Amino acid sequence: MNEAPRIGPERNVELGASDEPFQNLHEFIRKARSNLNQNAWDYIVGAAETETTMRRNRMALDEIAFRPRVLRDVRKVVGSVEQFGRKLRLPVVLAPVGALEIFDPDGAASVARACGTFGAAHMLSSVSEPGLEKTAEAAPDALRLYQLYVRGDDAFVADVVSRAEKNAYAAFCLTVDTAHYSRRERDIAKRYVRESRLRATGGDYQKGLEWRTVKMIKDKFKIPLIIKGIATAEDGQIAIDHGVDWIYVSNHGGRQLDHGRGAMHVLPEIVDAVKGRAKIMVDGGVCRGTDIVKAIAAGADLVGIGRLQCWALAAAGEAGVARMLELLEDEVVRCLGLLGATSFAEVDKSCLHAATATNAPSVFSAFPLFDHEPYHY
Ligand code: FNR
Hints:
Blueprint: H1 26-35, H2 38-45, H3 52-62, E1 64-66, E2 81-83, E3 86-88, E4 92-94, H4 108-118, E5 121-125, H5 131-138, E6 143-148, H6 154-166, E7 171-175, H7 185-190, H8 195-199, H9 203-208, H10 211-220, E8 225-230, H11 233-241, E9 246-249, H12 263-274, E10 279-283, H13 289-297, E11 302-305, H14 307-338, E12 352-354
Parallel strand pairs: 4-5, 4-11, 5-6, 6-7, 7-8, 8-9, 9-10, 10-11
Antiparallel strand pairs: 1-12, 2-3
The structure holds ligand FNR.
């Protein structure tokens, strides 16, 4: 069993100052690797085909430099924001991840609980255990969002939306970048077929999904709607025309279409197209406090985290996820302070500048102290 998370404002997060085993974010990766078999490890780190989209996510973040302002009083800096009428300690949503039960016996319930304890948002994947009702029960007070892969007809979709409303999810999300399953070559090379893929049914509904379903949900339900997987201004505009509440800029962590753009390269055209008429989430390669600050400064309202969440969960369960959020908060607060800002309200795109990335992008490149060579495959 994992220890209960020991978090809170009274905790001393000064590096090296506590008996906390995880002092740097890369330490979760090392521990996760030692806890996981090759197939589970590949499930986290892998992406589609050449994995170019995944690397571009990191590259796009690394191609942004900061323009810090100085001689401002930054004694008191907070990383908190308000979203969905709730205060969050960070503008972070732990992104929907299928099959979290591979990493922790309680799966998504552990992640939702950690989010609730810390004060981050949690988006539950429709293909993660223990499912919609039990995850809600496990973390009744967390800011919970629900994500669906459409694998059934309108009646199926409407039933899931009703259950999300009934179980007090704050928003409903359709993932729309999975019309076809991608080729995950790490698995194919091993001749390994994931159980979740064998079990999945209703693939034709995913392939046939159109804006009509978005309209059906908006017409029938009040719950705020998020569309995850928007990657162009054109589709951002169509989402706005349908009254979508949140546009989630994402390429699925590079796990679907290969040779896509890095999410942070897509974000500016979405911000321009949306013009404040919907809120914006973004994910892809986000691993550090500085990444979160860059995304918010570039116009996002919430920032999603996929792989880092998996590594933290696989390393130390619920307490690991809470500790990961705590370390991210520490990085965010220091970054804001060094930019001359006391909160996210004081950062915008004037804090950012195009730059050359200094390292080769990889799924681990946010963590130069993590010696990834022995772990890459
Ligand atoms: C995902 N992602 C995902 N997205 C989704 O909408 N439903 C899902 O069930 C899953 N499952 C899933 C499993 C695993 C292991 C990963 C790593 C990712 C995509 C996820 O929500 C998010 O878009 C990306 O993970 C963001 O990129 P980073 O943070 O992993 O680089």
